[in-house]
Amino acid sequence: MIKHQIFILCLCAAVLTIGCNRGFERCSVEGKVTWQGKPLDGAYVGLRPASGPGTGAETNAEGVFLINQPNGPMPGHCEFYVVKTQKVPVKDSSGRTADEERSMIPDKFSQKPKTIELKSGKNQIDLNLDQWDE
To answer: What is the CATH number of domain 25-120?
Structure first.
């Protein structure tokens, strides 16, 4: 009887594991972010897919970002946004200095995301912020 119950539990666990992985296909996304004709270093490229969890990556010195398939979004419509902040020392009314995060690019790149269709597998998405509104 115990062997039968263990078998049933293992079978249920296997079915749940297989079933839970269906519909969660991920894709990889890589690209380059440019602004004012130059690569944008240290920016965060965020992705909000129509379904599934969001993800993102930071750009390197060449403006390149990479999101590998295991951490990538699900294929389909996906909103892309870009944020670049920098800590700036600011004095408060008592004269103490504290770091404050300030946006280094216009807020429209994070507040007006671009919707792009992602396909299964590998996606090359280059974001030219100078053409963001087009």
So the answer is: 2.60.40.10
Which tokens go with 28? 């990889």
Please name the residues in contact with 122: beta carbons below 8 A apart, sequence gap of 6 or more: 27, 28, 30
User: Is pTM, for the whole model, over 0.70?
Assistant: yes
Domain boundaries, the chain: 25-120
d(CA 109, CA 45): 10
Quote the CA–CA distance of 116 and 64 in Å, as a whole number: 18
Q: What is the pLDDT of residue 84?
A: 97
Q: Is the pLDDT of residue 85 over 60?
A: yes
Q: Cα separation of 3 and 63, whole Å?
A: 58
In 3D space, the residue among 25, 5, 24 whose CA is nearest the CA of residue 13 turns out to be 5
- The dihedral over CA atoms of 33, 122, 58, 20, expressed in degrees to the nearest 10, equals 140
Lowest mean pLDDT among 11-15, 20-24, 39-43, 82-86: 11-15
The CA distance from 3 to 64, in Å, is: 54
